[in-house]
Design a protein that fits this description.
Layout lengths: L3 H41 L4 E4 L5 E4 L1 H6 L18 H17 L3 E9 L2 E13 L5 E10 L1 H27 L12 E2 L5 E2 L1 H8 L10 H8 L3 H8 L1
Antiparallel strand pairs: 1-2, 1-5, 3-4, 4-5, 6-7
Length: 233
C-alpha cells in the first residue's frame, strides 16, 4: 500500500506532465516558427548561400545558389559537390572547403561558375561553424556576384595587353633601319638581309600590296601603245 505522501505525488504527476508537455509544445512551435523565418530570409537572399558536411555533401543551399548553378535546391541538398560540378571544378572548390574544415579559419576566394549563358563570377567567403565541443561542425559559404566587375577587369586587361603589344611594335619599328643603297634589302636584328616587305610583315600588322608609281609606270610602259592611250584619255 502506498504511503500518503507518495500517493499525493503520484496523483499530481499527470498534471505536471501535462504542463510540461504544453510548455515543450509551445517552445517547439516557437523554434519551428523561428527556423521557418530564418530559412525564408536565406532562401530569398540575392546572395548565394550554402553549407557543407565534411565529406563534401551539401547540407543546405538557398534559391540563389541553386539558380546560379542551373539546378533546383532538391537536386543539390543531400548530394555531393561532385554531383553538381565536373570533377576538376569540384576538386578545386572542395579543396578550399576542406582547408577551412581542417584549419578552422575563414578564407575568401574568387570562383567562376561556367554556364551555357556565359561565365558568372563570385567572391565567396568560406567560414567554419563550430560545435559546442569546439569541432568544425559545418562550413558555410556566402557568395557575392561580381560578374560585372570581373568583366570590366577582363576588358581592361585586354586593352592593356593590346597597348603593350602596340608599344612593342612601335619600339621595333623605331630608330634606324639598315637598308642596302643598291638593292633596297634591309638587315634584321639577327643580321640577315631580306626584302623590306618581309621585314614589315614580320615586325608589324601591316599588310603590303604592290603597285607602281607614275614614274615607274612611265619608265616601264611609256612606249607601249596601250599606255599612251590611257594616259592621253
Amino acid at each position: 500500500m502506498l504511503q500518503p505522501k507518495l500517493l499525493q505525488k503520484t496523483e499530481n504527476l499527470p498534471k505536471d506532465i501535462g504542463m510540461s508537455r504544453d510548455l515543450l509544445s509551445e517552445e517547439l512551435e516557437q523554434i519551428k516558427a523561428s527556423e521557418k523565418h530564418y530559412r525564408m530570409l536565406l532562401d530569398e537572399s540575392m546572395d548565394p548561400t550554402f553549407s557543407f558536411y565534411p565529406d563534401g555533401t551539401y547540407r543546405y543551399v538557398n534559391k540563389a545558389f541553386a539558380v546560379g548553378v542551373g539546378k533546383t535546391q532538391q537536386e543539390i541538398i543531400g548530394y555531393k559537390i561532385w554531383d553538381v560540378f565536373d570533377k576538376d571544378e569540384a576538386d578545386k572548390r572542395f579543396a578550399i572547403v576542406k582547408q577551412v574544415f581542417n584549419a578552422g579559419k575563414t578564407v575568401e576566394v574568387e570562383v567562376r561558375v561556367p554556364l551555357t549563358t556565359g561565365n558568372t563570377f563570385y567572391l565567396t567567403t568560406v567560414k567554419p561553424i563550430f560545435s559546442d565541443i569546439g569541432d568544425v561542425e559545418t562550413v558555410i559559404c556566402t557568395s557575392k556576384n561580381i560578374t560585372k566587375r570581373k568583366q570590366a577587369e577582363i576588358a581592361l586587361q585586354e586593352k592593356h595587353d593590346k597597348l603593350v603589344q602596340a608599344q612593342k611594335e612601335i619600339e621595333t619599328l623605331s630608330g634606324f633601319l639598315p637598308i642596302c643603297a643598291s638593292c633596297n634589302k634591309v638587315r634584321d636584328d639577327e643580321g640577315y638581309w631580306g626584302k623590306i616587305e618581309a621585314y614589315f610583315i614580320k615586325h608589324s600588322d601591316v599588310e603590303l600590296t604592290h603597285s607602281l608609281c607614275p614614274h615607274c609606270m612611265e619608265a616601264l610602259y611609256g612606249n607601249e601603245e596601250w599606255y599612251e592611250k590611257i594616259t592621253d584619255s
